[in-house]
Recover the amino acids of this structure.
């Protein structure tokens, strides 16, 4: 179980195809974990790339931490992880909140980032910022339900209910995650978004309520391409093979 | 230790016991005690394993069997219905065939 120490904190990572010349780093979303990439998207990327996945703080199997969920802290964490692994430069892909982290990373540390794939990053300044945060929890639940229900709608069992409940209780009531995210609401208007120079691919679901955010980013990031994939905000779960193939082709081309 | 790659070929009973040991390590003894784990037990419905627990379980198989079994690759070829209905017996058969 690779839980490594980064700045004296336990971080769960998974790596594939370590010997490859170039590295792809994958960042998951809020209330999710690296498993969103592990089974489909990462193995596709690992055909050509060294792939690194990690669990964000207090998510998946990484250590619980009370503070530092703003984008500066999250990108500090990511840079420390790269340094700890001895990786100088990566192609970066991030989903939802992870997409915001990748954008911030490209703006703050442009020399460290090759290409950028942003999947379903929401605009933190949506009219309903609070709703967006609530959406994050629905996204998690939907992910859960998709994985744990079939046509007969099997109910979430007692152990998983307790596990989920504990995670929500912790993140919502014992960490700064909500207040830190609200502080980021001007992020899409900040000059740093327009300063992003990397080749950028924006992937959004055709039926996603975040599609408007994708269009906004396309207008702000020079040369960015916006690609719509059939589905809603949950496209990595709905279309994992398509997403994997599209990102693989994007990172591998040129 | 699950980091030692086994070279001895295991029969289906031995594989079943090993899988049961991995499941216990992943979800905890206190939960396993309440369950009747059989070859028919499904990962999601009966054992209630979520995706990050299945990652941990997959890593244990990788660490134990090494290159001879591409467990993650095998899982990634399944559609959602197959994953939901995946039971321990199917995994035991797969590992037995791969050895």
């Amino acid at each position: 179980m690779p839980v490594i120490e980064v700045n004296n904190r336990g971080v769960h990572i998974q790596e594939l195809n370590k010997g490859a010349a170039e590295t792809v780093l994958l960042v998951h979303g809020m209330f999710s974990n690296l498993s969103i990439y592990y089974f489909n998207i990462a193995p596709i990327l690992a055909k050509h790339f060294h792939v690194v996945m990690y669990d964000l703080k207090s998510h998946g199997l990484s250590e619980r931490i009370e503070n530092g969920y703003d984008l500066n802290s999250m990108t500090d964490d990511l840079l420390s992880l790269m340094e700890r692994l001895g990786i100088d430069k990566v192609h970066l892909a991030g989903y939802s909140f992870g997409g915001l982290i990748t954008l911030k990373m490209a703006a703050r540390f442009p020399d460290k980032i090759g290409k950028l794939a942003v999947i379903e990053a929401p605009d933190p300044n949506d009219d309903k910022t609070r709703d967006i945060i609530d959406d994050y929890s629905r996204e998690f639940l939907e992910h859960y339900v998709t994985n744990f229900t079939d046509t007969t709608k099997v109910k979430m069992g007692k152990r998983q209910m307790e596990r989920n409940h504990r995670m929500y209780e912790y993140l919502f009531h014992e960490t700064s995650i909500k207040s830190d995210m609200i502080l980021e609401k001007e992020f899409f208007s900040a000059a740093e978004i327009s300063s992003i120079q990397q080749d950028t691919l924006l992937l959004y679901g055709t039926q996603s309520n975040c599609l408007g955010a994708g269009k906004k980013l396309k207008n702000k990031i020079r040369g960015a391409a916006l690609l719509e994939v059939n589905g809603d905000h949950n496209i990595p779960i709905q279309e994992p093979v398509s997403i994997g193939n599209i990102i693989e082709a994007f990172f591998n081309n040129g | 230790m699950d980091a030692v790659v086994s070279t001895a070929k295991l029969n289906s009973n031995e594989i079943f016991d090993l899988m049961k040991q991995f499941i216990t390590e992943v979800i905890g003894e206190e939960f396993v005690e309440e369950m009747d784990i059989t070859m028919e037990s499904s990962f999601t419905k009966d054992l209630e394993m979520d995706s990050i627990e299945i990652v941990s379980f997959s890593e244990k198989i990788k660490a134990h069997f090494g290159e001879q079994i591409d467990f993650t690759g095998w899982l990634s070829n399944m559609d959602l219905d197959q994953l939901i209905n995946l039971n321990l017996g199917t995994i035991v058969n797969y590992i037995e065939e791969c050895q």
Q: What stands out?
A: Confidence is low (pLDDT under 50) at residues 148-154 of chain A. Residues 194 and 221 of chain A are 5 Å apart (CA to CA). The interface with chain B takes residues 1-2, 14, 33-36, 38-40, 43, 55, 60-61, 143-144, 146-150, 154, 157-160, 163 of chain A (CB under 8 Å).
